[in-house]
Specification:
Number of domains of chain B: 2
Number of helices of chain B: 8
Distance between the termini of chain B: 27 Å
Largest interface: A-B, 37 and 45 residues
Strand content of chain B: 15-25%
Shape of chain A: globular
Number of domains of chain A: 1
Strand order of the largest sheet of chain A: 2-3-6-7-9
Strand content of chain A: 25-35%
CATH architecture of chain A: Alpha-Beta Barrel
Distance between the termini of chain A: 37 Å
Shape of chain B: globular
Structural class of chain B: alpha+beta
Number of strands of chain B: 9
Order of helices and strands of chain B: HHHEHEEHEHEHHEEEE
CATH superfamily of chain A: Fe-S hydro-lyase, tartrate dehydratase beta-type, catalytic domain
Radius of gyration of chain A: 16 Å
Oligomer: heterodimer
Helix content of chain B: 25-40%
Largest sheet of chain A: 5 strands, mixed, barrel
Order of helices and strands of chain A: EHEHEEEHEHEHEEH
Helix content of chain A: 25-40%
Number of helices of chain A: 6
Bound molecules: iron/sulfur cluster
Strand order of the largest sheet of chain B: 2-1-3-8-9
């Protein structure tokens, strides 16, 4: 088990390798379809994303009587939808980590290698376990996109992920797929 | 007998004292029905059925310690415990809401449908279901989980005197990796026989990789037209994972597919590992000579299925899973 602690950096994520099980402590920014499209269209992000981690997640959130937000469910959403945009966001805004599920494509893998970023796979469907790791909601940006699509700034402790695409051009998704293809050939 | 199952609102003409009591009871029926259905939805969304939990536990033990597969299975188990404890949805995608209702003759389907809709709306308000139903043309989300085709409701008349309601919440990610094949399939050298069926099922599992939030559970239908094949495949998800198929050939095939797919090394979430499939359930339907469809319905590890038997007053008498 490895640890990735805030503040994050290119050097720190370059040390991670495919298959590493990692616990993240620090800050995450959620961002899914609307945010990625917005950045792709040339709009500046409302927060500085340099050396930050973006989480493909549309959290279920609740505001209490005092106006404080809590996250009640926070599982990852399918990342491949951001494939057309992700590489640009990595290049232009310097994010060093992307959390999601299902993995991403070649463009993102190349950008991870070139600019120093990793793809971190959270366990799909584990909405409760992951929400438990969120200790506070520290900011809300681009609220006009609707709550699940907005950028939420979250503080997490020991948020569990697996590195499935590293900053050296390796992809666990590719490896597993190629390996299973070989086995399938034998079986069929 | 038949009348018991229906909630007819009788005109309040002159009725004897005895009858008044009866009328009051019947008016309570709808409220009780909504309560029972709401509880069914809550349990379905927050607790995996016993048979699924056992399958997850058994497979988790099989994984080598300190591997990514072991790690993923550990988080899955922790999530199951936590969701139950907090009475919160297992997964935030609470899926397509699908009801299967078995009722005696003379049952009022229209009335029951309305009560189902009320319970679904209520369950959404209470957060047991996410606002998950979107108009496919306008993109609008009414926030109630109601709309054309939602929830999906199937009625069946059965010989028994009781009403049984089964519910499946079918996630979107796993639905996206579900597949339909038309045999013969040249690329896979899959012909129109059980060997061909076996090949396309394995291909579907290979193509799904971890994208359907595996370990998955399959419902399969061999035959039927395109629509029926998909319908019967999904209905196989109502079977308990540890049951056997009454058809010996299919039973053998089911076991063989699970064993074979678990050799593919895809593992939980596609991280690699031994647990790729928890189960495979296969049925068949007649086809016309010109077509041969095989449909595979992929269910994620967050396998949400429950059922209740209702008593005469529509209270929950028994849980089915
Ligand atoms: S596939 Fe299942 S576990 Fe995964 S996100 Fe969808 S509903 Fe949740």
């Amino acid at each position: 088990m490895k640890k990735l602690d805030y503040p994050f950096s290119v050097e720190a994520v370059r040390k991670l390798k495919v298959g590493d099980m990692v616990l993240i402590t620090g800050k995450l920014f959620t961002g899914r379809d609307a945010v990625h499209k917005y950045l792709h269209d040339g709009n500046k992000p409302p927060v500085n994303l340099k050396n930050q981690i973006i989480y493909h997640c549309g959290p279920v959130t609740m505001k209490d009587k005092n106006g404080k937000w809590t996250v009640t469910a926070a599982g990852p959403t399918t990342s491949i939808r951001e494939e057309p945009y992700q590489w640009e966001v990595i290049r232009d805004y310097g994010i060093v980590g992307v959390i999601g599920k299902g993995g991403m494509g070649q463009k993102t893998l190349d950008a991870c290698k070139e600019y120093g970023c990793v793809y971190l796979h959270a366990v799909g469907g584990a909405a409760q376990v992951l929400a438990e790791k969120i200790k506070s909601v520290d900011g809300l940006f681009l609220e006009e996109f609707g709550l699940p699509e907005a950028i939420w700034e979250l503080s997490v402790v020991d948020f569990p992920v697996v590195v499935t695409m590293d900053a050296h051009g390796n992809s666990l998704h590719k490896e597993v797929e190629a390996h299973s293809k070989e086995i399938m050939k034998e079986i069929l | 007998m038949a009348k018991k199952a229906a909630f007819k609102k009788k005109a309040t003409k002159k009725v004897s004292v005895k009858k008044v009591v009866k009328v009051v009871k019947k008016l309570n029926g709808p409220q009780q029905t909504i309560e029972s259905l709401l509880e069914l939805i809550r349990i379905t969304s927050t607790v995996v059925p016993d048979d699924v939990f056992k399958a997850i536990e058994r497979n988790a033990k099989n994984e080598e310690k300190n591997t990514t597969a072991d790690y993923a299975m550990g988080i899955i188990k922790e999530n199951i415990d936590l969701a139950k404890y907090k009475s919160q949805p297992l997964c935030q995608d609470t899926g397509t809401v699908i009801f299967y209702i078995y009722h005696p003759a003379g049952f009022h389907q229209t009335t029951f449908k309305e009560l189902i809709k009320k319970s679904v709306t209520l369950a959404t308000k209470k957060g047991y279901l996410r606002q998950n139903s979107v108009n496919s043309l306008t993109g609008e989300n009414a926030g109630t989980n109601l709309g054309e085709g939602h929830p999906s409701i199937h009625f069946y008349e059965h010989k028994g005197s009781e009403v049984e309601v089964k519910l499946v919440l079918k996630g979107g990610g796993c639905e996206n990796v579900s597949a339909q094949y038309s045999l013969p399939n040249t690329a896979l050298s899959a012909g129109r026989d059980l060997e061909g069926v076996r090949k396309v099922i394995i291909d579907a599992v290979y193509k799904a990789q971890g994208k359907g939030c595996g370990p998955g559970a399959l419902g399969v239908c061999v035959g039927g037209d395109r629509a029926d094949s998909a319908y019967y495949a999904k209905k196989q998800l109502l079977r308990k994972l540890d049951d056997s198929n009454p058809n010996k050939d299919l039973d053998k095939l089911e076991k063989e597919i699970v064993e074979t797919c678990n050799k593919l090394g895809i593992g939980p979430m596609g991280f690699g590992g031994k647990t790729t499939l928890l189960s495979c359930k296969i049925t068949s339907a007649n086809r016309v000579p010109a077509s041969f469809f095989v449909t595979i319905s992929y269910m994620c590890w967050a396998f949400r299925r429950q059922g209740i038997v209702m008593n005469k007053n529509f209270a929950i008498k028994k849980w089915l899973y």
